[in-house]
Amino acid sequence: MLRSLTAGIVLAFAGSRANVTRTILSCAGIVVGVGALIMVVTAGDLGQRYATAFSEANAGRAATIEAMVYNPINDLAAYEEDLVRAGAQDVSLYQSPQNDTLFRSGDEAIESVSVTGVDATLSDIRRINLAEGRWFTEADQESRAPVLVVNQSLADFLGDQTELQMGTDRWIDVRVVGVSESSALDGDWYSAYLLRSPVSEEIIFGPSWDSEIGGFQGGGEDMGVTHLARVDPSDSAADQMDGGTEFTERMESARWRWSTDDQFEYFAYRSDFSEETDIVITVMSAGLLVIAGITLTTGLLGVLNVGLVTVRERRRELATYRALGASRFTLFVAVVMESVVVSVVAGIIALLLSFALVAAAGAIIGNFVALPPDITMTVPPSAVLVGLLSAAFVGLLAGIIPAIRALRASVVAGLRE
Amino acid sequence: MSFDVPLPVAVPARPATVPLLRVEGLTRHFVVSGTRIDVLRDCTFDVSRGEVVAIIGQSGSGKSTLLNVLGLLDTPSSGSYTFDGVDTTALREGRRSRLRGEGVGFVFQQFHLLERRSALANVGVPMVLGGVSALRRRARAKELLESVGLGHRLSSQPHQLSGGEQQRVALARALSREPPLILADEPTGALDAASSTMIMDQLIEQAQGHDSAVVVVTHDPKVAERADRVVELVEGRTH
Ligand SMILES: Nc1ncnc2c1ncn2[C@@H]1O[C@H](COP(=O)(O)OP(=O)(O)OP(=O)(O)O)[C@@H](O)[C@H]1O
Ligand SMILES: [Mg+2]
Hints:
- The structure holds 2 protein chains of 2 kinds.
- Chain A is 51% helix and 16% strand.
- By secondary structure, chain A is of the alpha+beta class.
- In chain A, helix 2 (20-58) packs antiparallel against helix 8 (274-309), helix 9 (311-323) packs across helix 11 (381-408) and helix 10 (328-366) packs antiparallel against helix 11.
- Chain B has one domain (21-238): P-loop containing nucleotide triphosphate hydrolases (Rossmann fold, 3-Layer(aba) Sandwich), CATH 3.40.50.300.
- Chain B has helices at 63-70, 93-103, 119-129, 134-147, 163-175, 193-210, 221-226; strands at 21-32, 35-47, 52-57, 78-83, 86-87, 104-107, 181-185, 213-217, 229-234, 237-238.
- In chain B, helix 3 packs parallel to helix 5 and helix 5 (163-175) packs parallel to helix 6.
- Chain A binds chain B through residues 3, 6-7, 10-11, 14, 18-19, 316-317, 320-330, 410-412, 415, and chain B through 68, 71, 73-74, 93-94, 97-98, 100-102, 104, 106, 108, 110, 112-117, 121, 125-126, 128-131, 173, 177.
- Adenosine-5'-triphosphate (ATP) binds next to strand 1, strand 2 and helix 1 of chain B.
């Protein structure tokens, strides 16, 4: 049995070398079909990575909830503890200062910078790509100057960042520790993340903030506070419902701990769009797979056709082998293996072509847009696997039918052909 | 004739009473569009190791048909065929193929070499099936081709060889696994006198030197003359 198998494999290699025309003809269809499949899987993978990066950088990882409370909060620490109790795995403040924040560098004033007060934990919720410097650390909490991460447009505009000041009513020196990367995903406007710390709290929360009690004084009634909270995507707190989510209900139950207001004014909604992108990508991949499937089937029929056309020629060859002592099983293995070997070789050629094509496409696209740093134009391992497996599978299918036909004839009849 | 020449000491002499193959009352008919053609009607004979038997008969008398049965390529319609003590009519495909590969070397009337494959590769095929390693296969194929005078044409393909040269490649291939039975269907049919003598020398040497049984189908009286025994086929019966 084993000997038959190895003999079959040896004969398969000899056969595909000896019958060059047959081999090349079979190859062509497979190269196109498998190549199309590889490109489709690559495109799907790229789309998925791009969409995920887009979603994670702009809205948050799955599942991010944006939680806004409009009740006057008299104990922000207790409120934030409740966010965790309601299911948040990571929590970060995500608050735009109530009063316009102005910036100036030396004497030059900069308008319309959108500032967001955040915690260092934001990087666990959102994907933050840094072009320079670093993200916030624990130690930044103790900085005497407010600490910022600015976006690239702002950094470019500022040039020298050493004299940067910001303020709502008076100017204070600020320190820039990092520059977040602009990419095809970001807009061009100026923006900055401001780390929440004892020195920045007042800028973020406005004049009604009382740092002694860690909450708002009577004047903070219209003051909404926004957080981003990342919950387990399988947690029912993440499910979107109308009129609020389960997250809202969980927050309401202990409201007395942090607010004395009667009304519960609370909004929590899912802010990442990973669900939507998943749907789009699933539909798109399915469409592309159908196209690739059709191409591959065409390739399969091509190989099958070549196989069937050469059956007559092969009958004699196979009968000769059998006269020399090869069993039907050995020859079945040989014919099918030959088909598989040829297909896999074609698959490898298709793979090499795909690599070249994707690299070229990457170079061309790179001239026009800056892709996010973790999105490289490459053929993913899944595409390599799918390509080679489908090549082998096509070879198998296309080999079996001609093999059965070629071996049906008796030895003597085969020799007479 | 072979009994006049002493056998090499290394080869154990078998008792002449146990023939390598034996056919008894063998028949073979074909049905062509409803009509039955009785090609072999009653064949009975045996062949022992070390013996060269010539089968003669008119064209169409069924010589090739008989040889196909002896070579396990075809099965008789009735009668028995015992090869090396095994009743071959009951054999299944797998064992039949193995027995064919190990037991029989065939030299066909039309050579049946594999196209687009070198002489060396052609001679190596039975050894591939026998699980001989590539290195030993090559060495043995080379040695065999040298022994039939084709040491200089190892990489030639069949279409680059003359008929006589092809026949010698086919002979080398048939000998490659040293089978106990060599069947040759008009091995000298396409050859000149010198080549045909050379082929016969080889076959006789195989019988005497390696204790094989050799069955040669021929039209050529000179070839039949050199055999130990002649079996004549007349109207499907052996005489
Ligand atoms: N598969 C077959 N189907 C029908 N008839 C066949 C078949 N094989 C052989 N025959 C017939 O059997 C007869 C004997 O054929 P065979 O080839 O054995 O003759 P032969 O003695 O070898 O002749 P030659 O000397 O010309 O080679 C022929 O009449 C042939 O037509
Ligand atoms: Mg004949």
